[in-house]
Design goal:
Length: 480
RNA sequence: GGCGGCAUAGCCAAGUGGCUAAGGCGACGGUCUGCAAAACCGUUAUUCCCGAGUUCAAAUCUCGGUGCCGCCUCCA
């Protein structure tokens, strides 16, 4: 058993060798909170959460850090437009981010550091870079000297000389080299600012992540994630400024996730080409959104598409249904095979064999660069085995005795992927209104009033529930 | 123009040197059902964008095409 991780920097899968055998650190670049979160912001959150949950299931203590960039030009722009302080804008969008993280069963991070709360750390890091001659003061700004760091470009595979053309210098910037990037941006009149040795100003975009990652995870840590659109320049610059300052490896594994596409093109704030997660959540069950987002390997792009989501809903319902079936037949039923004092589950039960096999394949999938798509796929084989046992009228005692254990395996593996949390209480909370209609329909069916029964079923379906007439009675489920 | 990635059935998606090319959706046939739904059983890629090469052996490696995506400016 060994975990292998694809590292963007080395461009290959490497064995996972944590800095600390018991504890691992993950830094996942969060969002700039000038706006509400869109689906793309949930892709990286889900991808990170899956990896985190898996590592935790392997016994690691995971220190998980996701930042908020709560000060930058866009936020200031937005605040000015609305005529409110910048922190009102960032505050409300951070809140929205967390609301929808919870909705998608994304575990809360260990830390959610914000740039504006880490000015001392940021300033100290910039000072360190100036002392080492990797940064210089120019006018009211401080820049990183890219030419002073020969390994620049190692993450994104770029050569400094190739980059020379095309780089733009904004008005007012006084860089020695067009490639140099801002560490500290001196404030213009009326802009929010913090005091520093170089005068009032605010941090550049990249420096906060280096400072905060090092503060919470140490100068060298295991995982650094974020969207693939951050590879260059953001992550490249993070490596440059961090490793130039410490002389040590910064993050050991760079695990950038593929982007969410909309009609074939990247979801993006600046292009106004995106779906807000709050709008999507009104139409699609949160469990299905999550299931869908992790049904593709995290490094591949994923198309956001209503047809795909509907299919995902059907597929996911299959898993949930098997789980429910298994748990229902398992609960409260004495296991005949165990009644005689037997302490071990019947090893020759087919469901149990399937559960063991699924467990093995699931683990192998996740060990191979956290392939949740593959792991999730294996769950369907176990679901089928559980349904098969529950289905057959002449279920053997051996199979029945093994069913609870097999079902527990399904639940445990699903939960490792962050599934099966029943976001809307779909199982328990059948509204009284719906339940009353179900009862009426049952009565009609007893009297063989089929037309009346069908009308009632149509009404119930219109309320978003599906019916399953079973031997023991009618089961109503929320449609996923 | 430079850098990186992707191309697998009707659709989505695993698989990156050798067992029958996972799984889901859809479709078709069957069981069950008052009819459905769900579930179960069966069928649905002699073949992995195209061409050449390496190898006893390639969807998987190499080279050359074609198409798509991302980055090179803020973006998860």
């Amino acid at each position: 058993m060994s975990i292998r991780v694809y590292d963007t920097r080395k461009r290959k899968k490497l064995p996972f060798e944590p800095v600390d055998p018991k504890r691992t650190g993950m830094y996942v670049c969060g969002m700039t909170v000038q706006d509400k979160p869109h689906v793309g912001h949930k892709r990286y959150a889900v991808a990170g959460d899956v990896i985190r949950r898996y590592l935790e299931s392997k016994g690691f203590e995971v220190v998980y850090v996701t930042n908020f960039t709560d000060i930058d030009d866009r936020i200031i722009e937005r605040a000015n437009k609305e005529g409110i302080p910048f922190d009102k804008v960032s505050e409300r969008n951070m809140k929205a981010f967390l609301t929808y993280s919870d909705l998608l069963n994304i575990k809360r991070a260990t830390h959610y550091p914000r740039a504006t709360e880490h000015l001392p750390e940021i300033i100290a890091l910039i000072q360190r870079l100036i002392e080492k001659k990797h940064a210089y003061v120019s006018g009211i700004d401080v820049y990183f000297d890219v030419r002073s760091y020969p390994k620049y470009g190692q993450l994104s595979g770029r050569k400094v000389d190739d980059l020379r053309q095309g780089v733009r210098i904004e008005v007012g910037e006084m860089k020695r080299d067009p490639l140099d990037f801002t560490l500290w941006k001196g404030a213009k009149p009326g802009e929010p600012s913090w005091p520093s040795p170089w005068g009032p100003g605010r941090p550049g975009w990249h420096i906060e992540c280096s400072a905060m990652a090092m503060k919470y995870l140490g100068e060298t840590f295991d995982f650094h994630g974020g969207g693939q659109d951050l590879v260059f320049p953001h992550h490249e610059n993070e490596i440059a400024q961090s490793e130039a300052a410490t002389g040590k490896t910064f993050a050991r594994y760079w695990i950038e996730n593929g982007l969410v596409l909309l009609r074939g093109a990247k979801m993006s704030k600046s292009e106004q080409h995106f779906f807000l997660i709050e709008d999507v959540a009104k139409k699609v069950e949160p469990e299905v959104i999550r299931f869908y987002l992790q049904s593709t390997q995290y490094r591949s792009p994923i198309e956001w598409n209503e047809d795909r989501l509907r299919e995902a809903g059907i597929a996911y319902a299959r898993l949930k249904s098997a789980l429910e079936t298994g748990e229902k037949s398992g609960d409260g039923t004495p296991d005949p095979a165990l009644a005689g004092g037997a302490t071990e589950l019947p090893a020759n039960a087919k469901v149990l064999a399937e559960a063991r096999k699924t467990e093995k394949l699931f683990q192998e999938s996740m060990e191979d660069d956290f392939n949740s798509a593959k792991a999730q796929g294996h769950l369907f084989d176990l679901a089928k085995a559980i349904n098969r046992v529950s289905e057959s009228g002449r279920m053997s005692e051996v199979e029945r005795a093994a069913l609870p254990e097999a079902t527990r395996t399904l639940r445990r593996l699903g939960e490792t992927l962050g599934l099966f949390w029943d976001a809307n209480g779909a199982e328990e909370a059948i509204p009284d209104e719906v339940q009353a209609l179900v009862t009426q329909r049952d009565e009609a069916r007893l009297q063989k009033q089929w037309q009346r029964a069908d009308e009632l079923r149509a009404e119930i379906q219109a309320l978003g529930f599906v019916l399953e007439d079973q031997k023991g009675g009618t089961r109503a489920r929320r449609k996923l």
